[in-house]
């Protein structure tokens, strides 16, 4: 057994001890549903470590995430549904099946020309290539995935110029709705603006979620510097926007 497999088995053994009679009472009380918030938290901690380029944290967070993957599989095994080996076999077979150009001896097969998304549609017997994107995804990520799926069958622009034009068109329509004070129309057009900006980000190979998170972090850092320039919140609230903006710009220059 390789070191990787031995370490993987050790984690399984530790988890089984925690879930066994006399193990950890908290762990033994958990269900698939009760673990979801922690699974989400660990997933976002992995993402944060990646975005910070912190490899030590990434090493730790990937272990935490792996624990939750195994925990979910162990609960399913206890309930008689499947075990982690079944999940590993499924993903291995799926990767081989969806990459016939790599694993298929018959390189002339028509299936070799199917994109990943088209292969998923055929395999899962879906009505649309857009099906299968979870509604619970963050909306910017879901918008990008929907656009990627549409692009997989050729529904996409090939250059940036028409994408820019679409962004400007949607902003213009939003401006008109605001001028006319049409609340429902404003909400509709705001969504169109955001969707078109996500499309621009996708074309430029920029993750809109990561980009927005970066901007939020910048805002937080600068705003906290503005706060520290005042003795308390009351003093800050009495300051003019010009005063605060001057401190903001100074904080921006210091970056």
Descriptive notes:
The protein has about 260 residues and is mainly α. The chain has three domains: about 5-95, Helix Hairpins; about 140-205, Helix Hairpins, CATH 1.10.287.1080; about 210-255, no CATH class. Helices cover about 75% and strands about 0% of the residues. The protein contains 13 helices and no strands. The mean pLDDT is about 90.
Give a brief description.
By secondary structure, the protein is mainly α. The protein is built from 13 helices and no strands.
Could you say which overall geometry the principal axes of the C-alpha atoms support? Answer: extended
The termini sit apart by 50 Å
Largest sheet: none
Fraction in beta strands: under 5%
Low-confidence stretches: none
Find the CATH topology of the largest domain: Helix Hairpins
Structural descriptors:
mainly alpha; Helix Hairpins; 0% strand; 73% helix; 3 domains; 13 helices; 255 residues; extended
SSE blueprint:
Elements (H helix, E strand, L loop, with lengths): L2 H17 L5 H5 L6 H17 L2 H24 L5 H14 L2 H4 L12 H9 L14 H13 L8 H20 L3 H21 L4 H21 L4 H6 L2 H14 L1
Helix pairs in contact: 1-4, 3-4, 8-10, 9-10, 11-13
């Amino acid at each position: 057994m390789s070191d990787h497999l031995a370490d993987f088995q050790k984690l399984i053994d530790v988890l089984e001890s925690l879930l066994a009679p006399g193990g950890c009472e908290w762990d033994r009380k958990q269900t698939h549903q009760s673990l979801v918030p922690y699974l989400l938290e660990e997933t976002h901690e992995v993402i944060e470590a990646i975005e910070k380029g912190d490899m030590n944290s990434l090493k730790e967070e990937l272990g935490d995430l792996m624990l939750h993957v195994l925990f979910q599989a162990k609960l399913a095994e206890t309930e008689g549904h499947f075990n982690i080996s079944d999940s590993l076999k499924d993903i291995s077979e799926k990767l081989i099946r969806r990459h016939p150009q790599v694993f298929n001896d018959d390189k002339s097969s028509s299936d070799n020309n199917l994109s990943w998304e088209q292969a998923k549609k055929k395999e899962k017997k879906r009505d649309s290539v857009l099906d299968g994107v979870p509604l619970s995804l963050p909306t910017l990520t879901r918008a990008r995935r929907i656009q990627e799926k549409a692009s997989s069958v050729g529904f996409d622009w090939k250059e940036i110029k028409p994408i820019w034009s679409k962004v400007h068109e949607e902003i213009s329509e939003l401006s008109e709705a605001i001028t006319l004070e049409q609340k429902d129309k404003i909400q509709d057009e705001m969504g169109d603006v955001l969707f078109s900006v996500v499309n621009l980000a996708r074309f430029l190979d920029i993750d809109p979620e990561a980009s927005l998170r970066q901007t939020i972090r910048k805002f937080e850092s600068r705003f906290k510097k503005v706060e520290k320039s005042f003795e308390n919140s009351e003093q800050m609230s009495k300051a003019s926007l010009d005063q605060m903006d001057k401190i903001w710009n100074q904080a921006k220059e210091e970056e």
